[in-house]
Design goal:
Shape: globular
CATH architecture of the largest domain: 3-Layer(aba) Sandwich
CATH class of the largest domain: Alpha Beta
Radius of gyration: 21 Å
CATH topology of the largest domain: Aspartate Aminotransferase, domain 2
Structural class: alpha/beta
CATH superfamily of the largest domain: Type I PLP-dependent aspartate aminotransferase-like (Major domain)
Largest sheet: 9 strands, mixed
Distance between the termini: 23 Å
């Protein structure tokens, strides 16, 4: 029987989840602070975790909100900033759930084409002169889905444009800590925090199911997001936030990140080598970290109905078009989206990666 290989969601493998340690932290948090974390609580998040994050980013606690995953906080931010007729700019391609979130809030979502070092600044500035967006959303480190990182020069340019034109930039950084080679680049907020909202979570570093995400932003933005959160969810999930705080207090986070890098780096290398071997005519940017490698098949490739045909071959792919927002004027993304393939590598073994890429090559 042919093994089904999943090249779909960017999830940690079971062996990456520190279940025993999380359990110990849960018990410790309940025993030490159960009266607080089992009650309706501080809507801005568990105070000890907020203090840790404030220290991490060199900000006040008033500039930190901890919520039920970064996507939830992103949605709340979209709700307070998107007005009727607003546009939101994203990288093209971009995180599919972000595109859906912004559209659900009523924005027209436009994609700025990605280059190997970040968005095309010329096209971005042309769009800014046409209409200033509510915000620009980007994943600057090991982008989902493309795997590329925005260069320092473009980070500085983006911050400058945000301040010149008066729009927000969301930097979503869930993969930033998972760098397997190369050198860290500055956060956009480290360049200038005036128009920057930073989002991240512990989903990729500890466990997705804990649903602990956070936002670092100016105090007035945090206050507005916190107010809307209280109106919609009453209280954050304090037990899991307290467990994360305890995980960190025990010094386990740094050690866990080291273990994750040791697990994921060989899988990224296996993916790079498999693509070069089985798809030698396809160019792609080699990621330096994160969860994803992606490629755009050449126009002559047989990409029609690829997801359906791959499924019949025991290879499960995500539809490439879901990662594409509306194109800019005079830009076309339909054909590119059909030829786009995202290849997550963290939750599959090197052997599965080799076989999966071999099947993909046979289909195109």
């Amino acid at each position: 029987m042919t093994e089904t290989i999943l090249f779909t969601r960017g999830v940690p493998p079971v062996e990456a989840l520190p279940a025993v340690q999380i359990g110990q932290c849960m018990v410790a948090a309940l025993e030490s602070d159960g009266g607080v974390i089992l009650q309706y609580g501080n809507i801005g998040g568990y105070p000890p975790l907020r203090r840790m994050l404030a220290e991490d980013f060199g900000v006040s606690e008033r500039e930190v909100v901890v919520g039920n995953g970064s996507l939830h906080l992103q949605d709340l931010f979209a709700a307070i900033t998107i007005e009727p007729g607003a546009t939101v700019l994203v990288e093209q391609p971009s995180y599919d759930r972000a595109i859906k979130t912004f559209r659900r809030r009523g924005a027209k979502v436009l994609g700025i084409p990605l280059e190997d070092d970040g968005v095309n600044l010329e096209l971005l500035e042309a769009e800014l002169r046409r209409k200033v967006p509510a915000f620009l959303y980007l994943v600057p480190d090991f982008q989902n889905p493309a795997g590329i990182s925005t260069s320092e020069a473009k980070r500085r340019a983006l911050v400058g444009l945000a301040e010149e034109y008066g729009f927000w930039v969301i930097e979503d950084i869930p993969y930033r800590t998972l760098r397997y080679r190369g050198t860290d680049l500055p956060l956009l907020r480290e360049i200038s925090p005036k128009r920057v909202v930073t989002l991240s979570s512990y989903s990729k570093l500890i466990s997705p199911a804990l649903r602990v995400g956070y936002m670092i932003a100016p105090a007035e933005v945090v206050a507005n997001v916190t107010r809307l959160a209280e109106e919609t969810i009453l209280s954050p999930v304090l037990p899991t936030q307290a467990a994360v705080a305890e995980f960190r207090r025990r010094g386990w986070l740094d050690a866990n990140v080291v273990s994750l890098k040791q697990l994921y780096q060989p899988r990224l290398q296996a993916m790079v080598e498999a693509v070069k071997r089985h798809l030698p005519g396809v160019s792609f940017a080699e990621p330096e970290g994160g969860f994803f490698l992606s490629l755009t098949l050449p126009p002559e490739a047989h990409s029609a109905n690829l997801v359906e045909r791959a499924q019949q071959a025991g290879l499960i792919l995500t539809e490439g078009k879901t990662f594409f927002a509306d194109p800019l004027e005079r830009q076309s993304s339909a054909a590119e989206g059909e030829r786009f393939v995202r290849l997550p590598f963290c939750a599959v073994t090197p052997e599965q990666i080799e076989e999966g890429v071999r099947r993909l090559a046979a289909l195109v």
